[in-house]
Large ribosomal subunit protein uL2
Amino acid sequence: MKTYKPTTPSRRKMSGINYRNVLSGDKPTKSLVKGGKRHVGRNNQGRITTRHKGGGHKRRFRDVDFTYDKINIPYKIASVEYDPNRSGFIGLAVYKDGEKRYVLLPKEVKVGEELVTGSNVEAKPGNRMPLDDITLGTSVYNVEIKPQGGAKLIRSAGSYGEVIAKDGNYVDIKMPSTEVRKIHKTAWATIGAVSNEENKLRNYGKAGTSRHKGIRPTVRGTAMNPVDHPHGGGEGRQGRGRRRAVSLWGKPTGKGQKTRTPKKYSNKFIVSRRKVGKKRK
């Protein structure tokens, strides 16, 4: 981690990532980069579905490959680059046939290393294979929910899952949230843990850094009026006045409460629910 001299109150506790020691310094590949408008928490009708998003520095979208449909064609990592749209680092994969793609990198892989996607390949960080070929106890990321559906699970910086059991046509994976989930054995996963594990240790130091990242201010419910939030109102500082903490819309939230939809379609794939609190691991 990189620290700063306390030239201002915000600088005193600010810490960042020393990118010079990790990134290769290459500029983004033009053919894999495009512009576009960010949705900033709004759906296709323009309504806010995720609050506290908006503004921030302009970003260019890197076309990261999560399908990995080039089977048994080795590729070399030509660069390690920063991606403003995700917390992990990405690398430029140059395949033997000349095609270039961006891929999400594990923390052990460096420039010049050769990787491959295929069955019965070496189980080293960065290689990708079906879950049925992965031995128990192995760390994985970029996991598919459905076979040939593309990597959907475990993609944020420093995160990894663990293959803990195999039962019939399914493989049990322990997620970073401690949830244990069944996934079909023909789904694919990448060996290792996502790069940039120091990301969680970063201290922004000031509100302006959050605004640059596109994070808008969050107002506490207890600081609002009763008309604006179920926790609002009262003379001076008051308790929330109810047993459960709730969201703006009265739904249970936080504090270890269960918020998962009771009849969700994927409940049958959950072996054990995630643990909550500081001692969840």
About this structure: DSSP finds two helices and 17 strands in the chain. The helical segments are 9-12, 207-212. Residues 18-199 form a domain with the OB fold (Dihydrolipoamide Acetyltransferase, E2P) fold (CATH 2.40.50.140).
